[in-house]
Amino acid sequence: MCLSEQSRSSNTANSADKHMTDMSDFDLPMVIPEETRRLEVSQCIYPKEYEGHFDRLLIPKDEIAQVVQALAKQLCNDYHGTRPVLVCVLKGASPFFQHLCDYLMQKKQGFDTEFIRVSSYEGTSSTGNVQVAGGLNLQHVQNRHILLVEDIIDTGTTLSHLIPHLQEQASPKSIQVATLLKKRLPEPAKCEAKYVGFTIPNHFIIGYGLDYNELYRDTQDIFIISKEGIDFDATTLN
Q1: Domain residues of the chain, as ranges?
Q2: Topology of domain 62-200, per CATH?
Q3: Fewer Cβ close by (within 10 Å): the C or N end of the chain?
Q4: 86/165: higher pLDDT
Q5: How far apart are CA 6 and CA 111, in angstroms?
Q6: Would you state the pLDDT for residue 123?
Q7: 161 phi and psi, to 5 degrees?
Q8: Is 22 annotated as catalytic?
Q9: What is the pLDDT of residue 93?
Q10: What integer best gives the mean pLDDT of the chain?
Q11: How far is residue 87's CA from residue 133's CA, in Å, rounded to a whole number?
C-alpha cells in the first residue's frame, strides 16, 4: 500500500534513529506531508561550515536509501531483458544516480551510462531559461531505451526542453524519467516522470546533490534551507 501522509508521520517518526523496514515492495512515491516532522538535524553528518544553514531535516539518508532501492526494483521489472542507457542529469542527480546504479548492479540488471549537463536554476528560483551544455555521446544513445535520471522535478521546464532535444538528436526507442523528488505545486508540471521516489511540499531544499549556489551538495540527507543558509557568502570558503 502507498505510505499515506498520516501513516508516514506515525510509522516513521523515529526513522532517523533506527533502520527502516525493507520498503522495496512499497508503492511509490512516498509522500512527505505539508507539515513535516522535525527530525533532529544534530544527528546528521555535514561539513561544520554549514552549521545553522538548515531550517529542518526533510528526508534522512536511511529513507533515501530505501526509496532508491525500491525504484531500482521497479526499473528491473520494467527493463528486464533490455539494456537501457541511464543518463545522469548533472550535477544534482549525481548521488541519486550513483546509488541507483549500485542497486541495479546488485540486482544484476545490465545498463549503460551517460551524462548530460542541463540547468534552469539561479539561486532558489527556476529561470525558465534551459541550457543544455552537452556531455552526452549521442551515438551511444541512438535507437536505445533512455532513462533520464533527475534529482527533482518542480515546473518540469528542464525536462520539457531536454526530452524533445533527445528525441530529435538520438531517435531513441523510448525515453522515461526517474526522479528522486517531485514538488507538489498548484500548477501541473510541464513534464512528468514515470518513476518518482518522493513527492514533497514546495520548499527550497538542499543536500544529497541538491545545491544552493553550488553549496550543500555534499550531505547525505535532504534539508530545507534556512535564511542563514540563503544569506551565506560562499566566497568566504574559498
Answers
A1: 62-200
A2: Rossmann fold (3.40.50)
A3: C
A4: 86
A5: 37
A6: 52
A7: -95, -40
A8: no
A9: 97
A10: 87
A11: 14
Grid cell listed for 90: 548533472
Give all strands of the β-sheet with 54-59 in edge-to-edge order.
54-59, 222-225, 205-206
State how far the Cα of 33 lies from the Cα of 85, in Å rounded to an integer: 33
- Write out the three cell numbers for 147: 532513462
> For residue range 195-215, what is the model confidence (pLDDT) as tens digits?
999 999 999 999 999 999 999
Q: Strand 195-200: give its sheet, edge to edge.
A: 30-31, 195-200, 174-183, 145-153, 85-90, 112-122, 125-134
Report the alpha-carbon distance of residue 50 to residue 232 in Å, rounded.
9
Q: Check whether the bond before 173 is cis (ω within 30° of 0).
A: no
pLDDT at 96 over 50: yes
What DSSP assignment string belongs to 63-90? Answer: HHHHHHHHHHHHHHHHSTTS-PEEEEEE
Instruction: Catalytic residue, from 17, 102, 151, 154: name it.
Output: 154
Q: What are phi and psi of 47, to 5 degrees?
A: -60, 145
- Looking up cell 512515491 gives 29
Contact residues for 94 (Cβ-Cβ < 8 A; gap 6+):
88, 209, 217
For residue 184, the model assigns a pLDDT of 96
**Which pLDDT value is given to residue 91?**
92
